[in-house]
Records
---
Amino acid sequence: MRTAPVIPVIVIDDLAHAVPLADALVAGGLPVLEVTMRTPAALDAIREMKQVEGAIVGAGTVTNPRQLDEAINAGSEFIVSPGLTEPLGCAAIAAEIPFLPGIANAGDIMRGLDLGLTHFKFFPAMAAGGLPALKALAAPFGQCRFCPTGGIGLDTAPEWLAFEPVLCVGGSWVSPKGAPDRAIVEALAREAASLGR
């Protein structure tokens, strides 16, 4: 979470796009890549993107222990989930892999703290009340750090990153769908990487 200010949230429909996209993002200064498990190509994309020098590749949209195992077997270096269940949390902790579960309220955070977790994805960030909601949620949980994701773009990311408990933001704007245009993706990544404090 401290490696770069923005974690690209990546949806790979065509496996041929995986390596060129990863190459461009890493070259632009965003080495932490979250490949969402929303498509049939996701696991193979993780395997291929891991070959890109400097890339730190993880799986997103992991919702159960079976998917967790599949993601780890594909080489994922971290796991991101849209929410937090006890079975998934316990499985991730047992696997000793960095795990960023989604939270949207105090109960979610308390469930995570009960499992020994202190780093969370605030999701869906904008739909769940935006920065005012996260500020209110973070107040009683000073030990926690967050990666807001969902509806954040280049225009709003700096405001989120200025809030101390936010270590980074997740965003899809740096990894447009379709065949990656290296120059465009690298420029988007460089712009996003410059948002770091």
Note: The radius of gyration is 16 Å.
---
Amino acid sequence: MWPFTTLAQAQAWERAYRSSGHQSWHRDPGRTALSFTRGYLGFTEIDRVSSRTVSGRHARIGVAPTGPESGTAAVIHLVRFGTGPDAPWEVVGTDDTTFSLTTPAYGSPVRSPLVTGGRISGVDESIRVQVRQPSSEAPLGTSACCTPAGGDDQPWNVSVSFSGARDPVLTVIASTGGHVAEVERFTITAVRTG
């Protein structure tokens, strides 16, 4: 999903790293998770790692905004992309508990407008959905702000239109917040351009 869209890109980074130490953050799952959250998603207030579990080629990194009342916004799942000792970490999704994005299914082909949905637990939640691609800084589409939701394990759905998709893989992001931080929880999935 991110930061590399092909194995060839990841291998090119490995060669550059070995020759010059280029972008060493790709070797650290925590730094990669924060770069994904702050840089790619644009959630700049999420600026710390709240948990870290690394097991073999998989890592699960909790990220959170700074503040005494802020909890983990998401647990980002990363895997090593490639087989070499310097294989970089790649974001592949989130481990979801109280906020999930299950529609569209991971890896499914999509078109605009995109119907999204999942389940949420919480009080007075406001869900916003974005569609992004790695080759663009701006979102390809953002839902109207914001869809009210809440309760205990309740379904939610949001429709979002998008345009300008050029990359083969897109990232769909659902976020909620506004109580103690702009983004308090988020969930992602990867889809294919259809």
Note: The longest helix spans residues 7-20.
---
Amino acid sequence: MVQQTLKSPTDLLHFQLRTAMTMENDSLAALGELQKAAKTAEIKQLFRHHAGETKEQIANLQQVFRLLEFKESTAPSPSTKGISKQAASLLERSAPKLRDQVALTSALGNEHYEISAYQSLIVPTTAMGFSEVVSLLQANLDQEVHTSEELQKTLQKILA
């Protein structure tokens, strides 16, 4: 496998956007698995809702690629693959009564990774003056933060 050398801030930005696209696609797949694993209708619905938001986030990233005139593609995202593997491992080991808690905890970890990824994209695009791009990335970040808060509140509720 040929390793691409990133030589400029633009190369790095393009690579990070490609990784973000993979991250969101991986998240969409993981949400389907978490929805299947969840036991309660409320938590299944929470994952369905977030899957819809994730599709919007993918569309926003597609728009970012167009605005920046970058070829839309993906790049490896070992972090999201690892988060998904960890979730699957925990779910496999968990008694049915723990499935909701494990699913929420796993999703929460993924959200925090996504929040960090979007923050890392917003800083350079702001510095480069790409205001439309920043708006799209900020919309994704806002959804991720909101979802993280929802997951945390739901987790607190089921553990109360």
Note: The radius of gyration is 17 Å.
